[in-house]
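Tokens for histidine kinase. Go.
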Amino acid sequence: MSFKWLKPYMPRGIYARAALIIILPVLLLQVAVSFQLFRRHFEGVTQQMSTAAAREVQLVIDLLNDPTPTADSLDRVLSNLDITVSKPDSLSHTDTRLWYDFSGLIIGRVLRKEIPTMTALHLRDDRIVTLHLQLDTAPVTVTFDRRRVSPANVHQPFVTMIFFGFVLTVIAYAYMRNQLRPIKRLAKAAEAFGRGRSVPYSPGGAVEVRAAGNAFLDMRNRIERYFEQRTLMLSGVSHDLRTPLTRMKLSLSMLEDDERVELEQDVEEMQRMIDAFLDYARTDFETEHADVDAASFVREVVDGCSRAGQNVTLHKIEGDGSFSISAGTVRRAVENLIGNAVRYGTYAEVSLRITEKSVRIRVEDDGPGIAKADREQAVKPFARLDSARNQNQGPGVGLGLSIAADVARAHGGVLRLRDSERLGGLRADLVFGR
């Protein structure tokens, strides 16, 4: 049996679901017990007591209908039964009771069955019962104590049940909250690590939660060691390569101009490749985050690229506010997107949109763009899509989009590639949470 229809109505938070798991069984148990208690106990007891009271009232009716009773005998019976008889000005034919007096329904049903001459039953409070009777001689009203037809304080068991049910629910929820707190701490630590930050965390809670926490710490340590080893390896390779490149530059400077131009271009391309490798290696390892004003940050990046000779302008800024980022890595990501835009197109525009929950940095160009089927491949390291982007228009090693995507993921964000509706080329959106 499928319960998919119930899923939209279920709470999303773990605390709310735990509260539902605790409260729902307690509530259903209370309803079931209350129903059985009222039906089996109070209903049965009320029927028995009402039947006994109806027989006493019927005895009084028989005495009142007797044409030869003595006043002393009638008064003695009324005194012993603690029943009051009076003659009303008018006889009522409408029953009355309090809205919450459910036992009054049983009392009325029993008394009407046992006393055919009763025209109305008044239960205006929980202390007095008044019967309107049409006798053979004259109409009368009979009054007696309510405790003779139903148990006193019928509501007390329900109030007690609700009170202690609430107390037990609070205790159970407090205990459950204490058990769920380590899970939330683990989730926060994992979320922070996914955003590129390493926060202090120590496993706690139940044995299973501790095991998951220890597994997370082992995984985080292995990943951090991998990042550090990768960075150190590429830094060492870069350092070893820079020395022969420097010697090559010195040797080339001694050649004739017409002989060294192409060789110097090859050396510069090798230098750019090494720098790109290092940028890619540092993407996940730099984890220092700080609050940065989004508008000022984007203006600085665009101004820097413009001063470097790239044909890029700031299109528009919507909203204002700051977001927590590693400024160096995000700057490299935006610069890579701008570099790709002006490399494969002739013009690039940058826009910024700030909302309550996110910051979106958009880079658009007028180049050939990237086909929809190739966009997933384009963000992979060292991807070179010759059919989508003309590689003859500039040197590249296929790391620009990969670095931008890794930076976005390290900050808990995403890189989206779409077609630019305004410029006709590629539209790259870096989206970060606030």
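The radius of gyration is 43 Å.
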